[in-house]
Structure formats: structure tokens, C-alpha cells
Design brief:
Diguanylate cyclase/phosphodiesterase with PAS/PAC sensor(S), binds ligand C2E, 10 strands, alpha/beta, globular, 49% helix, binds magnesium ion
Length: 276
């Protein structure tokens, strides 16, 4: 093929690389404009107390309603946002918007719930991150106990010393810290327990097959038991079936988040759902 169109292999590879680079560049530029164009939106997924199905919290999940691309999943743009540093302004918007929305719901007289916000490693590396969170809470007037920051296992471990100090400060303010996607990294609960965390979320890859795969079920049970012995609460993420729920209930898992009860929903729909 190289000979046919008169190009050598190098040219073909480099043109493929160029196409990829161009795509990323285009997406980066669109992402840059997305904030001004107000193309980001938060969806909210309720988190339930397993025992009585009461809604205890709501996770804010970012969506990009792109004029060029349609609805883009965070899996598709968060990695690029992290690489380019755009996650800093985007993450700031997410925090503000989630706090504003939660305060609004509380002001409307709804029973207060904790809003959970996902935080990237890049955000936690910002020296002024604690101050940023503080001022957002001041501006939005959301009481600190109604904010939870979700940090993945790898983020928490990546800069354990910096994380430790920041998370301690945030914890002292009354903000809750949860470890997201637990089980996918290389940390142990004992290691994480040095951080001021209150909850761990079992990654959905273990939940998915736990009703058919003995190994996954064993891992989930072990995580729950260990977390409880360290006095942490546990959320199972990605729960889709009654069978999964029943095993989790039996193992005394505390909280459930998953399609079984609700997908992430736009704010108004989430409120309607939560009110019953
Ligand atoms: P995550 O924080 O672990 O969020 C849970 C993901 O699982 C969400 O995907 C949610 O829609 C999905 N999920 C919940 N229940 C079920 C279920 O029963 N079955 C299945 N198959 N999936 C379920 P989503 O919204 O696509 O977000 C993906 C990831 O993108 C998040 O994973 C988080 O790591 C990241 N992300 C989302 N919003 C933000 C944000 O504002 N900031 C940052 N830094 N990351 C975000
Ligand atoms: Mg999360
Ligand atoms: Mg997760
Ligand atoms: Mg995840």
C-alpha cells in the first residue's frame, strides 16, 4: 500500500500520528471553549442506605453537552482535561455548581443530603486547593457537612504526603472524604486509613459479577469486613440486580449506588425521584 500511493511507511505512520494529534488538539480547543459556552452540566445519582433505602447522598457526575459532539461522557474527556490542566477550571465549576445546587435544595426545604464531588489528582496538587474549597463553601453557604469529596485510590496514594495534609485540613473543616474505585489500585485499606477518610466505594468492576463469580463475591465481602473493622463505611457502586443487593445486605454493606435504584439524572428529575 505504501508503494501504491507513493508514500513510504514513515510518512504513513506520521500522518496517522498527525490525525490523532489533530483530533486531540481539536477536542482540547472545544473543551477550552466549553466553559464559556456553558456546555457542562451535572447529573446527580442518588446514594441509598441499604437497610431502609433512604437517600443519604447524591453524587454529582459531569456531562459535556458539546455543540460539536453532542453529549460526551466524562470517560472520553476527563483524561484529556487532566493532561492539559483544563481539569482545574472545569473542576472548580463542578465544585461550585454541586455546592450551589445542594444548598438550593436545602433552602427549598428538602431533607439535607450530602453531595459528592469527584476530585482529580491535578486538583489535589494545587497548593491552594483547601482555600478554594473553603471559599466555594463560603460563597455558596453550603454547610461543610453536606459536602463529600471522592478521591480515587490512586490519587490518594500518588502524593500521599501532600494528600495527607490537605485531606486532614479538609476533614477538620467537616468535609467528608470518600475513596472512589476501591480495589483497582495497589493500596491497602491500612495505608488509606492513615488518611482522614470516612467511606470507601467498592469499584463497580467487582460488583458487576459478584452474583455469579465467587472470587468477586469473596473480594467484596473481604473489603466490607476490613473496612468495618477500620470503622469506615462502605458504598457499593454499580449495583444493578436484586441478587447483588441481597448479598451486599447480608454482608452489611452500608450504602448502595447503582442503576438498580437510579441512574444519574438531571437535577430536577433527581429531586423528583428523591422526593418519591
Ligand atoms: P465514578 O466517580 O466512579 O462514578 C461512577 C460511575 O459509574 C458513573 O459513570 C456512573 O454513571 C456509573 N454507574 C453508576 N451506577 C452504575 C450501574 O449500576 N451500572 C453501570 N454500568 N454504571 C454505573 P460516569 O458518570 O460515566 O462517570 C465516569 C467517571 O468519570 C466517574 O467515575 C469519575 O471518575 C469521572 N467523573 C465524572 N464526573 C467527574 C467530575 O466532575 N470530575 C472528575 N474529576 N471526574 C469525574
Ligand atoms: Mg465517584
Ligand atoms: Mg467509582
Ligand atoms: Mg471510576
Amino acid at each position: 500500500r505504501a508503494k501504491e500511493n507513493g508514500k513510504n511507511q514513515m510518512e504513513i505512520y506520521s500522518s496517522e500520528i498527525n490525525t490523532l494529534t489533530m483530533e486531540r488538539f481539536t477536542m482540547e480547543n472545544q473543551l477550552r471553549k466549553a466553559l464559556e459556552r456553558e456546555e457542562f452540566v451535572l447529573h446527580y445519582q442518588p446514594q441509598f442506605n441499604l437497610k431502609n433505602t433512604e437517600v443519604i447522598g447524591i453524587e454529582a457526575l459531569l456531562r459535556w453537552n458539546s455543540s460539536d459532539r453532542g453529549i460526551v461522557s466524562p470517560m472520553e474527556f476527563i483524561p484529556l482535561a487532566e493532561e492539559t490542566g483544563l481539569i482545574i477550571p472545569i473542576g472548580l465549576w463542578v465544585l461550585k455548581e454541586a455546592c450551589r445546587q445542594n444548598k438550593y435544595w436545602i433552602d427549598q426545604g428538602h431533607r439535607p443530603k450530602i453531595v459528592s464531588v469527584n476530585i482529580s489528582a491535578r486538583q489535589l496538587q494545587q497548593k491552594d486547593f483547601v482555600q478554594t474549597v473553603k471559599s466555594i463553601l463560603e460563597v455558596t453557604q453550603l454547610p461543610t457537612q453536606y459536602l463529600c469529596l471522592e478521591i480515587t485510590e490512586s490519587t490518594a496514594i500518588k502524593n500521599i504526603d501532600i494528600s495527607m495534609n490537605m485531606l486532614k485540613e479538609l476533614g477538620e473543616l467537616g468535609i467528608k472524604i470518600a475513596i472512589d474505585d476501591f480495589g483497582t489500585g495497589y493500596s491497602s485499606l491500612a495505608m488509606l486509613k492513615q488518611l482522614p477518610i470516612s467511606n470507601i466505594k467498592i469499584d463497580k468492576s467487582f460488583i458487576r459479577d459478584m452474583d455469579v463469580d465467587k472470587d468477586d463475591a469473596a473480594i467484596v465481602k473481604a473489603i466490607i469486613a476490613m473496612a468495618h473493622s477500620l470503622e469506615l463505611t462502605v458504598t457499593a457502586e454499580g449495583v444493578e440486580t436484586e441478587d447483588q443487593k441481597n448479598i451486599l445486605l447480608q454482608e452489611k454493606c452500608n450504602y448502595l449506588q447503582g442503576y438498580l435504584y437510579s441512574k444519574p439524572l438531571p437535577a430536577e428529575e433527581c429531586l423528583r425521584f428523591v422526593q418519591g
